[in-house]
Amino acid sequence: MTEAQKNFIENIAQACIKLYPKYKILPSMAIAQACKESKFGQDKGLGQYHYNFFGMKWTKTCGCDFVEYNTKEFKNGQYVTVKAKFRSYKNFEEGMQGYFDFITGYKRYSNLIGELDSCTACLNVQADGWATAPNYGLSLYNDYVIKYDLIKYDDIVLGRTVAPVPPQVREEAKIDKPRSYVVKKGDTLWGISKKFLGNGIYWRRIYDANNLKNTIIYVGQILKIPY
């Protein structure tokens, strides 16, 4: 991760954390969308000059200016280029406020409000109609939430903490078990997958092998690593 990407994530994260009590939208999903849609704020159009980090389309009732750009949409099994009007904001704060007003202002996105699981939120935002790309939700989750450990920002707003290592787990950790791994502070499924399976994208194999209910792992947890 570059320093610019790190700073962008942190700026978006702080805005998401600040606005969470009012809107109840998981920071991890929102940050992932901002990173994906605006190329970490570095795209030469909407992100850098118009503070529209989420690629939001303009409507007559949205209360801001617009700018026209060509964009790709997935229609009839293929991508086509179309010209569309996008929202244009005056500053960073307006852009972030606009996103939360937008995503909580439409009934179709209501299943995102109060959602506690990041993977579910990413899949739902695609199913709700945010983007036409068929792999949009999975890309948000795998390429951004997991890769950049964005769930830690969810932990902040939800008051989740890293669980302490139970004594019995410390004892079990001394046993040399082949293809098992004791989770350490700072570990993620993506990182463990990269270490043992050669690529972070195979994290789902570890998830399934351990019958995990979500992507939260805790210090001292013993995971089975599939071959």
Q: Number of helical runs?
A: 10
Beginning-to-end CA distance, first to last residue: 29 Å
Q: For the report, how would you describe the main beta sheet?
A: 2 strands, antiparallel
Q: How confident is the prediction overall: mean pLDDT? A: 83
Secondary-structure content class: alpha+beta
The amount of beta strand, in percent, is 5-15%
Helical amount? 40-55%
Low-confidence stretches are 163-178
Fold topology:
Layout: H1 3-23, H2 27-38, H3 46-50, E1 65-75, E2 78-88, H4 92-105, H5 118-127, H6 136-146, H7 151-158, H8 167-172, E3 180-182, H9 189-197, H10 203-209, E4 222-224
Antiparallel strand pairs: 1-2, 3-4
Helix pairs in contact: 1-2, 1-4, 1-7, 2-6, 5-6, 9-10
Concise overview:
With 227 residues, the protein is α+β, with helices and mostly antiparallel strands. Helices cover 45% and strands 12% of the residues.
Explain the overall architecture.
There is one protein chain. The chain has 227 residues and is of the alpha+beta class. Helices cover 45% and strands 12% of the residues. The strands form 2 sheets. A two-stranded antiparallel ribbon has the order 1-2. The chain has a two-stranded antiparallel ribbon with strand order 3-4. A hairpin with a 2-residue loop joins strand 1 and strand 2. Helix 1 packs parallel to helix 7, helix 2 crosses helix 6 and helix 9 packs across helix 10. About 7% of the residues have low confidence.
